[in-house]
Write a structure and sequence with these properties.
single chain, about 325 residues, alpha+beta, Lambda Exonuclease, Chain A, three-stranded antiparallel β-sheet, about 15% strand
């Protein structure tokens, strides 16, 4: 089955979505992100080839998503201590071919523990927009697919988006992210994540809901640590982030339309021109120079050579 008109669809699997569940083809936020952050050449390669198998971290993130949304059929639990044996590798490769997430038993159990921490924590919040999110779909739609139309110049382009959770009245969208490492939920790291591409995802999803319902939803990211204590953080992109994210989407779709029209798919710049330094780069070095001048001013007889008595470094012993 293929979607042939804009709307909210609840029956598409993740595999169907990735294979493009829209009649005539469509653009999703991942492809738009490749256009903006890589190139049209990379976008064409992605459209014409199967994606590379997921890494261990990607598989675990997919497993955590599946546990959260209740789509456990997307997970293959491998009863092995590690991935070193040939039987484990065979099971992993088979799962990848079937479009599922292979995880070891102890990692699956860890995803269950993360689910418990997250849902119990969200339930305790006093924000009614978030309360009971992900609880089996009673209060929202789990992984719905939004098919929508975007007008680019005089043409229209079909797009698709699979959300993690959409409140039933379409007033709230939540996207879930799993992060590995220490200090990954600091404000600085979360801000970097949003400005490095998640602004575009939020803008894309906002456009999808607004196109179908006429209303702009409230958007939240839930970031969760993949190691104990499995703490999580809820952040909402600022209006400026959403506005810039939508501009990025518009640019990506415009570039995609032009590439298809003229069959031109340029890659990275190969002119050999200078790459200009950023303002922050210059400011950081100037600040270091000023700090050095204030704290490490040499004596007059050391000002030229930097050695006692003005001796040449090789003569200073």
């Amino acid at each position: 089955m293929k979607a042939d008109k804009p709307g909210i669809y609840e029956d598409f699997t993740r595999r169907q979505y990735l294979d493009d569940c829209v009649a005539g083809g469509s653009c999703n936020r991942t492809l738009a992100n490749v256009i903006i952050n890589e190139s049209l050449l990379h976008a064409r390669h992605r459209m014409n080839n199967e994606p590379a198998p997921g890494t261990k971290e990607m598989d675990f993130g997919g497993c955590a998503h599946a546990v959260l949304t209740g789509h456990l059929a997307e997970v293959d639990v491998v009863e092995k201590p590690n991935w070193k044996s040939k039987p484990a590798i065979t099971l992993r490769d088979t799962a990848h071919r079937l479009g599922r997430f292979p995880v070891l038993r102890h990692d699956y159990d860890r995803a269950i523990d993360m689910y418990d921490v997250l849902t119990e924590g969200v339930d305790k919040l006093e924000d009614e927009r978030l309360n009971m999110a992900f609880r089996g779909g009673q209060h929202g739609l789990l992984e719905p697919v939004i098919v929508f139309m975007v007008k680019i110049g005089f043409t229209e382009m079909m797009c698709r988006a699979m959300l993690d959770w959409l409140k039933k009245d379409c007033s709230v969208v939540i996207d879930y992210k799993v992060f590995t490492g220490r200090g990954v939920l600091t404000e600085k790291h979360c801000l970097w994540q949003i400005e490095d591409g998640l602004d575009m995802q939020a803008g894309f999803y906002e456009m999808a809901i607004e196109s179908v319902t006429g209303n702009r939803p409230k958007f939240y990211f839930i970031f969760q640590e993949s190691r104990q204590p499995f703490d999580f953080r809820i952040v909402s992109p600022s209006p400026n982030h959403l506005a810039i994210g939508r501009k990025k989407v518009d640019m990506a779709l415009t570039n995609l339309r032009t590439a298809r029209e003229f069959d031109k798919w340029p890659g990275y710049d190969k002119s050999g021109d200078f790459i200009p330094c950023t303002k922050g780069y210059e400011e950081r070095w100037l600040g270091r120079e000023i700090d050095h001048a204030e704290h490490y001013t040499p004596e007059p007889d050391q000002a030229v050579t930097g050695t006692p008595g003005g001796l040449h470094p090789l003569q200073a012993g």
